[in-house]
Amino acid sequence: MAAESSPKIVIVDESPIRAAILEEGLREAGFTGVVHISEMQSLLARIYALDPDIILIDLENPSRDVLEQMFQVSRAVRRPIAMFVDQSDAASIQASVDAGVSAYIVDGLKKERVKPILDLCVSRFNAFSKLQDELARAKSALEDRKVIDRAKGILMKLKGLTEEEAYVLLRSTAMREKKKIGEIAQSILTASELLK
Amino acid sequence: MSTPLHIGFIPLVDAAALIVAVDKGFAAAEGLDVTLIREVSWSNIRDKLNIGLFDAAHLLAPVAIASSLGLGHIKVPIVAPFTLGLNGNAITVSPALHAAILSELDGDPFDPMATALALARVVATRRKGGAEPLTFGMTFPFSSHNYQLRFWMAAGGVDPDEDVRLVVLPPPYMVDSLAGGQVDAFCVGAPWNSVAVDRGVGHILHFVSDILVRAAEKVLAIRHSWSERNPLVAAALVRSAHRATEFIGQPENRAETARILAQPSHLGVDADVILRTLNGRLKISPDGAMRESARYWLVGRDGASRPDPVQAAWLYAQMVRWGQATISPEALEAAKAVFRPDLYDAALGLRGEAGGAALGPLRAFAGPTFDAADVSGYLAWFRRSAGAAEPDPPKSKD
């Protein structure tokens, strides 16, 4: 087996961004043999051809079940095992499931060599989720802005208000009704659509 | 005060008992506040059940046994106090393979022995012509689908490990893979066979009830340790699933059941397709041919819900037959102990009168009647039969 050289790592992930984040992290940590598979067709054949030491797969990927078949192939020279087979480290199993990543490790690779890789995966997966949340928030803030601008326009036209007055009206209504300005703006758009 | 429970499921029709138990309020009536979590892989379900993220799960019966025996994965004893359904899978083949089998068929197309022999001839012809081996999709290494496919083709003399390729495919990918030619056939649960027929890319060749008279398909799985600590909650869960299967079992409730299952958060498949499987009346060919069978999927009737250790023993025998497990009396007992009719009876206040024996012998279309007390003898019959089918038996010199 690949003695003390850098282990060969395969990342199975349909999200190119997350895979890139993980790959970058692994390279920075000195793991140079990293291959990303994003295409799930003939997954097993590609993995056999690459013959990796470690396979990382995200838990949202239905093809995880395809990987489970690796345990069944009696002719495979190197049999991988699921990370979960090592029951000694419940905390890291929990952390990886929470983060949404699972690892398959070829039998024989030393535990202390696997641990830093897994830790890195978990932190990178978590970083990716955080990034996604932030993106989603930024996107919805942008959407809100657009809706508010359109609602302001309607108020200005119908009530002859200035832009500032229209915004103050939106804000005071939102405060009175304990709602977000975006929600009030959306109801104005809906109402004006209905009354057209 | 209601007990919060997290239950994982795969979007398949046989998760119905759990989905209906929640949707119709049967779980709430038992004091359970169930959150259903839709999962994408059996591996995820197994792992999340094992580490306690799920309290219970919709699980392949063989995975519950494999987990309890520590096969292929960590050993976490699982118990099944309730069977979510018997049968329900089907074998669907591509139009090309369907035509090839029919052209070689000598007998009734619903006779699995006739189709298995035809398949063997198709396989032999392909080999002579230098064609790639046929590829069959199934859902998981430890699945009834895997064993049903293997049982069927082996009866005709096809070696599932040598003559064809058996590959794992997630159920939602089955139809696309058949359409795209990555697989020539598959064995999967509802609704995917019907979806393939509707899309014109597959013919349903067999209901698995053609192969084995009844097969435990999915179970309500809980950790053994959890069941010991929470016996009352486990019993309440069994009762709510029982009420749900009673509901589903009433023909007048099928349309509503199909609507509930069809919801995007559950299966997200057309209610009409689901209704066909609930009615046991399936379109089996793109030309519109229908086939009806009362045994296609058994839920809420014929003792389908009560875990039958004989079923567990049959599944264990298949694991041994195909090299996933080694044979030992201890492992057989451990496998049987996964299926817990006692917990079922206790939860429902029964006294065991609806036992497995009442269901009649466990017969398949080939081989002797299954005897849970003599798994070795049962498997020896198949070894002899496979040996007899070999044109040139290997000499046992080594």
List the helices and strands and how they pair.
The complex is a heterodimer of chains A (196) and B (398).
Chain A: E1 9-12, H1 16-28, E2 34-37, H2 43-50, E3 54-58, H3 64-68, E4 80-82, H4 90-99, E5 101-106, H5 111-159, H6 163-176, H7 181-194
Parallel strand pairs in A: 1-2, 1-3
Antiparallel strand pairs in A: 3-5, 4-5
Helix pairs in contact in A: 1-5, 4-5, 5-6, 5-7, 6-7
Chain B: E1 3-9, H1 16-23, H2 26-29, E2 32-38, H3 42-50, E3 56-60, H4 61-69, E4 78-87, E5 90-93, H5 95-104, H6 112-128, E6 135-138, H7 144-155, E7 165-168, H8 171-180, E8 185-188, H9 192-198, E9 203-207, E10 216-223, H10 224-229, H11 231-249, H12 254-262, H13 271-279, E11 281-283, E12 290-292, E13 297-298, H14 309-321, H15 329-336, H16 341-348, H17 375-389
Helix pairs in contact in B: 1-11, 4-15, 5-6, 6-7, 8-9, 11-16, 12-13, 14-15, 14-17
Description:
- The complex is a heterodimer of chains A (196) and B (398).
- With 196 residues, chain A is α/β, with parallel strands linked by helices.
- In chain A, 58% of the residues lie in helices and 11% in strands.
- Chain A has two domains: 126 residues, D-Maltodextrin-Binding Protein, domain 2 (3-Layer(aba) Sandwich); 57 residues, Winged helix-like DNA-binding domain superfamily/Winged helix DNA-binding domain (Arc Repressor Mutant, subunit A).
- In chain A, strands 2-1-3-5-4 form a five-stranded mixed β-sheet, sandwiched between helices.
- Chain A starts with 8 loop residues before the first strand and ends with a helix.
- With 398 residues, chain B is an alpha/beta fold.
- Chain B has two domains: 209 residues, D-Maltodextrin-Binding Protein, domain 2; 121 residues, Periplasmic binding protein-like II (D-Maltodextrin-Binding Protein, domain 2, 3-Layer(aba) Sandwich), CATH 3.40.190.
- Helices cover 43% and strands 17% of the residues of chain B.
- Chain B has 17 helices and 13 strands.
- In chain B, strands 2-1-3-10-4-13 form a six-stranded mixed β-sheet, with helices on both faces. In chain B, strands 7-6-8-5-9 form a five-stranded mixed β-sheet, with helices on both faces.
- The N and C termini of chain B lie far apart (67 Å).
- Classes of the chains: A alpha/beta (196), B alpha/beta (398).
- The interface between A and B is medium-sized, with 27 and 25 residues.
